[in-house]
Amino acid sequence: MPTPRQLVLPAAAAGLLALVALAALVGTGAVSVTVAVLFGMIVLLLGLQVLVVAGIRRADGKVLRLDARVKRCEAGITQVAAAAERLDTRLGEIAELLNQDRLRRDEDLNAVLASLGEERLHAMSLRQEMRELAEGLMPRLAAVEARTSSETGT
Q: Which residues cross the membrane (predicted)?
């Protein structure tokens, strides 16, 4: 549909032609001046009415395009909101998994530290036993050494 701006030039030309035709009819006496003025007013009012209707249609078309654009934007916002909700849910799941992993790692670390403590304690008791065993063997070893050196020396 042509815009009101595109209709102005043909409407002005048609109005000028109608004015010339009315002037010619009044000049020849075919129509009285009163009838010509009434006819001119009717044509003028019809022209204004066409311009108003065209303007309203143009505004209505703009409103429809804006409404369609708003609906597209709302649909996009709905999709983004749904995606954000899914991401939020997934992030919650990931956070829970990370928390469980952290707890498991803390338990493993505590078990390792406890095990190291137990092994150290066990190693200390073994060391004490070895020291006692070595202290018990030292006099015997000295006696055996003394006996072997006296046997080789005689």
A: 33-56
